[in-house]
Amino acid sequence: MTQQTEQDFSKQYELTAPHSEVVAALPFVSGRRALDVGCGSGRNTLYLNSKGFEVTAWDKNLTSLARLNHIIETEQLNGIHTAEKDLNSLRFNGAYDLVLSTVVMMFLQPETIPQLIADMQASTVRDGYNLIVAAMDTSDYPCTLDFPFTFKSGELSNYYRKWHIVKYNENVGQLHRTDENGQRISLRFATLLAQKGSVKA
Ligand SMILES: C[S@@+](CC[C@H](N)C(=O)[O-])C[C@H]1O[C@@H](n2cnc3c(N)ncnc32)[C@H](O)[C@@H]1O
């Protein structure tokens, strides 16, 4: 099978490019099994698969999953396992080298987050990685959107205090959504790449 690049899929199937943090994380991850938590139409799943990963991809949106499944079938891709899952009512375990969730957690119920992160961590092999990007609500960039959940400053990194944090920032980013003046809405996003089992005592 010829390996596809993310650009091929983006153009051909009108997907947005894979999240830049997924691209940036890839050189760190040595394994080959990934879990995409809230995969949407699969821009990150397809990218990882094109780089040789076997990817399990979960989302609750059947339209998005159908779009991804259409690409998988059309391109006869191997090693992508999609499933409809509601993260608000899910417990799971596994043995993945990379568990990722980009721009998903702000759509979940607040009470979901602690157990979801615990399950993501438990599903990661030793020396494996978690990558999370999620919206925040801070005093300088208050979240005015109706997201059920946003991280506070330091909250996401605190969940990973026993892991080796490779990258963590709370930089300002822009949503595609616009405000009443047509300006794209700016928010802080918590971005974390952490490796399991490498914490210093
Ligand atoms: C902004 S999209 C991001 C998709 C993908 N991670 C990406 O970066 O392209 C947010 C995704 O979260 C999914 N989502 C929201 N609530 C969910 C839930 N309760 N269970 C599973 N997926 C959910 C949505 O269906 C949507 O695909």
Automatic annotation (TrEMBL):
Name of the featured protein: Tellurite resistance methyltransferase TehB
GO cellular component: cytoplasm
Keyword field contains Methyltransferase: yes
Assigned EC number: 2.1.1.265
Phylogenetic classification of the source organism: Bacteria, Pseudomonadati, Pseudomonadota, Gammaproteobacteria, Enterobacterales
Keywords assigned: Methyltransferase, Transferase
Top EC class for this record: transferase
SUPFAM superfamilies in UniProt: S-adenosyl-L-methionine-dependent methyltransferases
MF terms (GO), sorted A to Z: S-adenosylmethionine-dependent methyltransferase activity
Gene Ontology biological process terms from the UniProt entry: methylation; response to tellurium ion
Highest taxon, organism lineage: Bacteria
Family matches, as CDD domains: AdoMet_MTases (cd02440)
Domain Tellurite resistance methyltransferase TehB-like: 3-193
